[in-house]
Amino acid sequence: MTIRVLLADDQALLRSAFRVLVDSEPDMEVVGEASDGAEAVRMTKEQRADVVLMDIRMPGTDGLAATRMISADPELADVRVVILTTFEVDDYVVQSLRAGASGFLGKGSEPDELLTAIRTAAGGQALLSPAATTGLIARFLAQEDPDAGDRDPARGERLDSLTVREREVLVQVAGGHSNDEIAERLEVSPLTVKTHVNRAMAKLGARDRAQLVVIAYESGLVRPRVE
């Protein structure tokens, strides 16, 4: 199956470079280019994109707002957004993950990393770099007041619906571990881990593993470590 990719960046030169790279792969094709968030949302619907490479800082509707719109649209439930950022450590990235993005990637990444990120997101694995994404979330959540009003009490309550094993798996996911690593740690099969992850996602209303990580921190199940 060919992965349909939409490029959303206000810099035409970058879009051109990404297009050449993506179109050079036999299993991918660029189906459109957008220069702002509103256009990205519209074209995602029109072109039936599978993955959107979304710049955060764009004029008008920025990438953060566009990600929220895509995530909130039931018709786009299968679309995965990968945030492209100049800053590897940026609170906007955390906000984007909360809004429904599947992960993030620095614009300075190697071509192979970008292509791997697209395939990973399209495959539903979501976390492009588990340890890096987890560390980023932990760093910024650690700077927040634990009693801050932007936390979602409902998410904490929804944790009650998880089984003991699902909670254990969620903690491991938040730690940036892959299914194979979790399976080895908990002495179960990778298929069993995948089942628990999918059930936790369904119960917590998470689109993918990236949102599971955010929920684990926001609910207090996992505490950020400040270095």
Automatic annotation (TrEMBL):
Pfam families: GerE, Response_reg. Coiled coil: none annotated. The lineage of its organism: Bacteria, Bacillati, Actinomycetota, Actinomycetes, Kitasatosporales. Residues 4-122 form the Response regulatory domain. This is Response regulator transcription factor. Keywords: DNA-binding, Phosphoprotein, Transcription, Transcription regulation. Residues 155-220 form the HTH luxR-type domain. It comes from Streptomyces coeruleofuscus. SMART domains: HTH_LUXR, REC. CDD domains: LuxR_C_like, REC_NarL-like. The modification 4-aspartylphosphate is found at D55. PANTHER family: TRANSCRIPTIONAL REGULATORY PROTEIN NARL-RELATED, TWO-COMPONENT RESPONSE REGULATOR.
